[in-house]
Design goal:
Elements lengths: L1 H57 L5 H28 L25 H22 L6 H24 L2 E2 L2 E3 L5 E3 L2 E2 L7 H19 L21 H18 L10 H31 L8 H16 L7 H24 L8 H18 L19 H28 L7 H6 L1 H5 L20 E3 L14 E3 L1
Antiparallel strand pairs: 1-2, 2-3, 3-4, 5-6
Helix pairs in contact: 1-2, 1-3, 1-6, 2-3, 2-4, 3-4, 3-5, 4-11, 5-10, 5-11, 6-8, 7-8, 7-9, 8-9, 8-10, 9-10, 10-11
């Protein structure tokens, strides 16, 4: 009798120990996933610093504050819109809901019932704001801030969230579960886009192209097609390079962070693969652009700004398939991305579209290539989610149709929003504003920074004088010393 009691007590203790162990493991996994997603979200949020550097360097000195104000608007207004309606439309799934748009979680309703949603809200909100930032650079130097704010609200509240629902919610028509609980799309295979070549970058790039077309070029940009465009060149190349490196660092939150977890061996290995591919593709694309600009394309001069955009083009192109492709495939995709950037950039310029930061060539064209590439590459037998046509997969049709639908949706909605604002005079800055610069006309202080003002040194043989703009200089200065 005593032995039976001892055995029962021992079994109870073992059962309690198992419960405690299971609870500890669950808590550990939850903490690890939250730490991972917060870190990744912070890196994505840091991309706003990169965009700020890149866009501030790409505009003229007289509009630096204005473009920085727009970057701040995107982050602040974008997150508030994501809080109010964006998340609900993007990821607010309900049982037996429709396949077009979400409808749950407005103003974080229901989050307290499942607090794990908070980390997802933060991570995906950073993605949302990033998509809207892409537009600001393309329309720089001639768009009114009130018009840009209005477009940002629509972009982050409706245009972008709906695309997210289609692709990432698990219930959208491009990626949902059928009766057999298999992930499919209305075109067959489910849409693949691991970190957002299409969902984030092509949406931003297409919207940027529409914005540049509707608002029109900067005053004087294409007045003389035979003249050099030195007046409109980036004023600060060091800012562009710093911005590129900041964005590249942020991409390691963007791509590896899209595992959305880090408590299993499989998710850790997926994140590692995504990181490797996020290095190789931009290395190849950047060097392709740098070589062709310096050795093949007129005027055959080394173009650091284009080098930066080539790197970003490779990052955009590999974002969709960073976790589903072998490293050599990532390198090849980067090779094509470099040519995609060069071709799209030349085409946009030939069509006299004033895209200040080449947003469409970087994000739009290579967002499309990134989606398409995942329909071609990726061996199903590798077990990492690939389903490419080159290996007998049936992914290509879905990828192509999704790309066309996403592009059409973004373009139509963007034009519907932008054209009425232009008609009402709420979009384009006047010629007087453009001549004087938005900083002097509507900002305080009137200059972003004092550039090159140097006091005279008594007895010095040097004297200050005005230096004309020249593309051979790294950045614009008001005054330089001449001896």
């Amino acid at each position: 009798m005593e032995n039976a009691s001892s055995i029962a007590a021992l079994e109870a203790r073992v059962k309690l120990a198992e419960i405690k162990l299971d609870t500890a493991v669950a808590d550990y996994n939850e903490a690890l996933d939250t730490i991972w997603m917060l870190l990744a979200g912070l890196l994505v949020f840091f991309m706003h610093a990169g965009f700020s550097f890149l866009e501030a360097g790409s505009v003229r000195l007289k509009n630096v504050q204005n473009i920085l104000a727009k970057n701040l608007v995107v982050a602040t207004a974008g997150f508030l819109c994501w809080w109010a309606v964006g998340y609900a439309l993007a990821l607010g799934t309900v049982d037996d809901g429709n396949k077009f748009i979400g409808s749950k979680g407005f103003f974080m309703e229901g989050f307290w019932d499942d607090k794990t949603i908070f980390r997802m809200w933060f991570f995906q909100g950073a993605f949302c704001a990033t998509g809207a930032t892409i537009v600001s650079g393309a329309m720089a130097e001639r768009v009114q801030i009130k018009g840009f704010i209005s477009f940002t609200i629509v972009m982050t509240s409706f245009i972008y969230p709906v695309v997210v629902f289609w692709c990432w919610s698990g219930q959208g028509f491009l990626n949902y579960k059928n009766k057999k609980q298999e992930a499919v799309s209305v075109f067959g295979a489910k849409y693949l886009d691991f970190a957002g070549s299409g969902v984030v970058h092509m949406v931003g790039g297409v919207a940027a192209l529409c914005g540049a077309l509707v608002v029109g070029p900067r005053k004087g940009r294409f007045d003389d097609p035979n003249a050099e465009d030195e007046e409109f060149m980036p004023h600060n190349i060091p800012f562009c390079v710093l911005g590129t490196f900041c964005l590249w660092v942020g991409w390691f939150g963007f791509n590896p962070g899209s595992t959305l977890e880090m408590h299993t061996k499989a998710s850790a290995q997926t994140a590692g693969l995504a990181a490797v591919n996020s290095v190789l593709s931009p290395c190849v694309s950047g060097l392709v652009v740098f070589f062709f600009k310096g050795q093949v394309l007129s005027p055959r001069r080394l173009d650091v700004g284009a080098f930066c955009n080539g790197i970003l083009a490779g990052l955009v192109a590999i974002t969709a398939g960073c976790a589903n492709l072998r490293p050599w495939e990532a390198a090849f995709i980067g090779l094509i991305a470099g040519f995609m950037y060069l071709g799209a950039s030349a085409l946009v310029l030939r069509l006299r579209v004033d895209d200040v930061v080449d947003a469409f060539a970087v994000h739009g064209a290579n967002g499309f290539w990134g989606i398409l590439a995942l329909g071609l590459f990726g061996n199903p037998s590798e077990g990492i989610g690939g389903n490419g046509a080159f290996y007998g997969g049936d992914q290509l049709v879905t990828q192509l149709m999704a790309a066309l639908i996403i592009a059409a949706w973004t373009a139509v909605l963007s034009v519907v929003v932008l054209v009425p604002m232009k008609k009402l005079g709420a979009l384009r800055l006047s010629e007087d504003f453009q001549d004087a610069g938005a900083d002097a006309m509507e900002h305080s202080p009137a200059k972003a920074y004092a550039a090159g003002a140097v006091p005279e040194v008594k007895g010095s043989p040097c004297s200050p004088s005005r230096d004309p703009r020249s593309p051979s200089r790294a950045y614009e200065e008001d005054r330089v010393w001449q001896c």
